[in-house]
Amino acid sequence: MFNKGNATLTLGIAAIVGILAIASAVLFYNLPDANAFNDRVERIFVENDNLTSNAEIKLLEILAQSGTAFSDVLASYRFVIFVLLVFSTAILIAALVFLVNIAAMNRRMSEIERAGIQINSLIISRDERVVYLNNMEFTLTEAAFEALAVLAEARMDDEVVSGVELESLITGKDRTECEEAAGATRIKRLRDHLGNQIVSELLIKTISRKGYMLAIDKDVIKMI
């Protein structure tokens, strides 16, 4: 992803610089020469050597001075145009970098959304009957807390807990006296307490025909 983004950025910058370079060359090529006015005045002097009166000579001197002023103004315009082109290049490159970064962030956010929120800490406090999920505190009912505690202990042992087993472990009844539906009801209530759809995807995983387990790394679980 990063190589592809870097390649796109490099090509984009090269395209911007190339387009502006071509535009600059065409613009400067079509600008009149700074000495064009002076050349015309000089031609007037050469072609009209019969202009000898003071007024005529004074007029030619004024024209020559105007040509020099025009040359200076045109040179300053060229410099201003050059600065504006450099500034435009910098702005376009910055905009391109910004857009590439936004695209990369959007792709990253899409990956995070597809992968789900990373659960890196699950602390179950039996004394306080409080659950800390990624440092977010959840106060559960006694039944929901016991269901989560059973799932956590089973996950640390890499075991899957069926609805019958869950009900048996919580109530202390024999498995033959428990029903799968009772355990499924406890799981549903636990999900409701913790956030329903989000947690059902991120925390409590249903394994078809086997039961339930916590879909997190067992190393992040801590019972206190």
Core attributes:
single chain, 224 residues, alpha+beta, Arc Repressor Mutant, subunit A, 2 domains, four-stranded mixed β-sheet, 7 helices, 66% helix, rod-shaped
How would you explain this protein's 3D organization?
The chain is an alpha+beta fold and 224 residues long. The mean pLDDT is 76. Helix 1 packs antiparallel against helix 3 and helix 4 (142-156) packs across helix 5. The strands form 2 sheets. It has a 4-stranded mixed sheet with strand order 3-2-1-6, covered by helices on one side. It has a two-stranded antiparallel ribbon with strand order 4-5. Helices cover 66% and strands 10% of the residues. The two termini are 42 Å apart. The chain has 2 domains: 2-115, no CATH class; 122-223, Arc Repressor Mutant, subunit A, CATH 1.10.10.10. The relative contact order is 0.09.
Layout of secondary structure:
Layout: H1 2-30, H2 36-47, H3 54-115, E1 122-125, E2 130-133, E3 136-139, H4 142-156, H5 163-171, H6 180-194, H7 197-202, E4 204-207, E5 211-214, E6 221-223
Parallel strand pairs: 1-6
Antiparallel strand pairs: 1-2, 2-3, 4-5
Helix pairs in contact: 1-3, 2-3, 4-5, 4-6, 5-6
* Count of individual beta strands: 6
What's the shape?
rod-shaped
What's the story with the biggest beta sheet? 4 strands, mixed
- Taken as a percent bin, the fraction of beta residues is 5-15%
What is the string of SSEs from the N terminus onward? Answer: HHHEEEHHHHEEE
Low-confidence stretches: none
The chain-level mean pLDDT equals 76
Q: What is the CA–CA distance across the termini?
A: 42 Å
Classify the helix fraction into a percent range: 55-70%
Strand order of the largest sheet: 3-2-1-6
Work out the radius of gyration.
40 Å
Number of H- or I-type helical stretches = 7
Q: What is the domain total for the residues?
A: 2
Which structural class is indicated by helix and strand composition? Answer: alpha+beta
